Amino acid sequence: MEVFAVPDLPEIREGDDLAALIDERVDLREDDVVCVASTVVSKAEGRAFDLDAFPPGPRATEIADRLSAIAGEERDPRFAQAVLEESTELLMEAPFLLTATRFGHVGVNAGIDRSNVPGSDVLLLPERPAESAERLREGVAADRVVVTDTCGRPFRHGQRGVAIGHAGLPAARDWRGETDRDGREMGVTVQNVIDELAAAANLVAGEGDGGTPAVVVRDWPFGDHEGSQAHFRDVEGDFVRQAIREWQYEG
C-alpha cells in the first residue's frame, strides 16, 4: 500500500470546510482511506477554548493542588475542570488524569491538547468523532475516513496513532472461524484495522510542527473477511479498567 500526506493544508479555523480543503488538494480514489488528525477536525468544529471558559469547582481545585504537589510545579485548576467536563469517568487522579471520554475513548486528560492552538489555550477532542468522520466522508471523493489521535498505551513507552472515529469501513477484521496455515481454526483474533491505519498515517503526518494533518492510505485491501464494529472495549469486559478501579479503591 501507499501512504502519503495531503500537501499544503492551511491553518484550519472554525467553520472551514475541511473535507473540501482535503479533496481539492489530492486526486482521491473511491477506495482510498483518508486519515484526518482530530486536531484539525476539532478546529473546524470550534472546539478551541480559553481556559477562562472553565471556572474551576472544588473538585478541580483539589485535583490541581494534588497534581501540583506531585509535580513540584503549579497545575492550573481550570485545566482540571476542562478535563472533568469532557469525561464520564476519572479512572486515575494521580500522578496524572486518566479519563474516559463521552464517546468511549480512554486516555490522559480527556485528550485535551495544548499544542498548535493559535489564539486559544486548549483544544478539545471532537464531541462525536464518528459523526465527524461521516461528515468528512460525505465531502471527499474517497469512501473511507478515519479520525485519528495520539495517545500512550499500557505496557509501552511513547505515543502512537489511534482511531477515535471512522466511517465507510468496519473497525476490525474478524479472523475467527478462518484457519491458519496448518488448518487450525482461529478463535480469538479480531484485528483492529482502524487503529493500524491511524498508526500508519501518524508515521507520515508526524508530530509537533509537521503541518500535515491529513494522510491518504491507498491500495490497502480489507480482504475477504468478516467485519466488526467493535472498537472501544465495553466497561464490563475491560479488565484493565476494573483493575485500576480496585487499585484506586484499595489505595
Verbal overview:
- By secondary structure, the chain is α+β, with helices and mostly antiparallel strands.
- It has a domain at 1-38 and 144-231: CofE-like (60s Ribosomal Protein L30, Chain: A, 2-Layer Sandwich), CATH 3.30.1330.100.
- It is 29% helix and 23% strand.
- The chain is built from seven helices and 13 strands.
- The chain has helices at residues 18-23, 38-44, 58-71, 77-85, 129-139, 193-205, 239-250; strands at 2-5, 33-37, 48-49, 87-92, 98-101, 106-108, 122-123, 144-152, 159-167, 172-174, 190-192, 214-218, 226-228.
- Strands 1-12-2-8-9 form a five-stranded mixed β-sheet.
- Helix 3 crosses helix 4 (77-85).
- The longest helix has 14 residues, at 58-71.
- The model has no long low-confidence stretch (mean pLDDT 93).
Strand order of the largest sheet: 1-12-2-8-9
What is the helix/strand order? Answer: EHEHEHHEEEEHEEEEHEEH
Please state the second-level CATH architecture of the domain at 1-38 and 144-231: 2-Layer Sandwich
Gyration radius from CA atoms, angstroms: 19 Å
Instruction: Name the structural class.
Output: alpha+beta
Distance linking N and C termini: 48 Å
**Mean pLDDT, nearest integer?**
93
